[in-house]
Every structure is written in structure tokens, then in C-alpha cells.
Write a structure and sequence with these properties.
about 260 residues, alpha+beta, Rossmann fold, Tumour Suppressor Smad4, 2 domains, six-stranded antiparallel sheet, 5 helices, about 35% strand
Length: about 260
């Protein structure tokens, strides 16, 4: 994934659609906003206001992958890294002033031990995780060249820049600015090589994970919400043909949030 904060919305949005998480707080907010701003049907909206937390925002972005409709989040959840501050006032003006970030997902191509092929998109990360008590053994190839013949670990992940502050950060991976055009490759509890901390790959890289001793050490692959169990190989690359547009309040764009996250204690 790569993207950048654009100068701002070029026009006022006249048809606002509202999506809300199932929580009472988000549903109540949606009812008030929909009445106040005359909610448009989702299929007719030229902007979607998402009410909830980061998890619901991610779901909403997935539903809008490949569409031109931008998404503006307002926090009715907990962390709200992808969300703007909740306020019911002057919503059309906030949308008109918002800055846009265009995001590209990762595409996962997973093959299971039965030969079944599964594909999925990830806006945060694609991760491989051990399924049982045995550590996983994984070979890592980048652009056709074996870079790590054997990684013994709990797992390994490839993150988008926008997702670098999520699971990747919890696994001690680096935070990556949107403009860097880099993908963090981060091990999860690596046992051998014990001191290998991962790598930063160009966004155009093709990454292949091959599971070694898959019958003894089964591995699952996860792309955001999609889990595929008993994989033997997983290919990951950035899908430049697919995109989604996210809106942020001025001076609170995604690039600024990613930079600010690096200075938190």
C-alpha cells in the first residue's frame, strides 16, 4: 500500500451516507446525524461517514475498495487512529475541508495443503501464524530470491504503511510514513535467527512465504478479516489497481498521525 494526503476535498458533498457499528453509541449517533443531514442511501452517497472504532472503519473501507466514494470516520469507539473527532456540528463544512489519503491494499494469494487457493485483500497486514504448540518454520523469498532459508517463529507479517502502527508495531516492527513506498516485513517472536528484526521492502516487492514441515507445524494466513488455515505457501504483493480514499480533518491527516505515533512514550 502506498498513498499520500492530498490538498483537500475539491467540492462540497451533497449526498452523505452514514454507516455505524452495532454499538448503542454509534447507532444513536447515526440516527441523529441521518435526520439532521438528510442521509442518502449508501449506493447514492458521494461520501460515507463511518461511525464507530478502527475495526468498523476497516470493515467499511473493505466494502468500498475500488469505489470512488471517500470515507470519513468519526470516533465512536476506543483508539480511533483512523477516525476523526466526533462532532455533530457543521458536518458538510468539515467534509469540504477534509484532506484525502489514497490507500492501496496488499493482495494475499494463499495455497493450502489440499491445493485450494484463496485470495484476499488487506489494508493493515498479511500475517502468517502458527496454529499449534510447535513453532512455525518459514522460508522467505523476495522478488524470486531466497532471502531467509528458514525462520523459526510464532509467525511473520507484511504490513502496509497505514497498517504499520497496528499489529506490526505490536510485533516491534517499524512505523513507515505513507510517502516512503515501503512495506515492513516483521517476524513475530523469532527464535532463529534470534536477532533478526525484519526488513523494509520496496512497495513493488513480491514476497513469497513457504511453510516448511507443514504437516508437523501447521500455519494459518490472515489478511485483515480473512483467515486461511493449513497453508503451504503465501504470496503477498501490493495491489496498485485497487484503492480506497479516506478523509481526515486538516492537520490531522494520516501522514501526520503516523509521524506523531513515533514520538509517543
Amino acid at each position: 500500500m502506498s498513498g499520500g494526503d492530498a490538498a483537500g476535498a475539491a467540492r462540497r458533498f451533497s449526498r452523505i451516507g452514514f454507516a455505524a457499528s452495532p454499538t448503542a453509541l454509534a447507532q444513536s449517533a447515526r440516527a441523529r446525524l441521518a435526520e439532521r443531514y438528510h442521509a442518502a442511501p449508501m449506493e447514492e452517497a458521494d461520501v460515507i461517514v463511518c461511525l464507530g472504532g478502527d475495526g468498523f472503519m476497516l470493515e467499511t473501507l473493505h466494502r468500498n475498495l475500488g469505489r470512488a466514494t471517500p470515507v470519513y470516520g468519526m470516533n465512536c469507539g476506543s483508539v480511533g487512529f483512523l477516525m476523526n473527532e466526533y462532532s455533530e456540528d457543521d458536518l458538510p463544512d468539515r467534509l469540504a475541508r477534509a484532506q484525502a489519503a489514497v490507500l492501496h491494499p496488499l493482495r494475499m494469494h494463499a495455497v493450502t495443503d489440499t491445493g485450494r487457493v484463496e485470495e484476499a485483500l488487506a489494508l493493515n497486514e498479511v500475517s502468517l501464524l502458527r496454529q499449534l504448540r510447535q513453532a512455525a518454520k518459514i522460508r522467505i523469498t523476495v522478488d524470486g530470491r531466497v532471502r531467509l532459508p528458514e525462520l523459526i517463529c510464532d509467525g511473520v507479517l507484511v504490513s502496509t504503511p497505514a497498517g504499520s502502527t497496528a499489529y506490526n508495531l505490536s510485533a516491534h516492527g517499524p512505523i513507515v510514513p505513507l510517502s516512503a513506498n515501503l512495506l515492513p516485513l516483521t517476524p513475530i517472536s523469532a527464535f532463529r535467527p534470534r536477532r533478526w528484526r525484519g526488513a523494509l521492502l520496496p512497495s513493488a516487492a513480491d514476497v513469497l512465504f513457504e511453510v516448511l514441515e507443514a504437516d508437523k507445524r501447521p500455519v494459518a494466513a490472515v489478511a485483515d478479516f480473512t483467515e486461511v488455515r493449513d497453508v503451504v505457501s503465501v504470496a503477498v504483493s501490493e495491489d496498485r489497481e485497487t484503492r480506497v480514499c479516506v478523509l481526515f480533518d486538516p492537520d490531522q491527516g494520516l501522514s501526520e498521525r503516523i509521524i506523531a505515533e513515533q514520538f509517543l512514550a
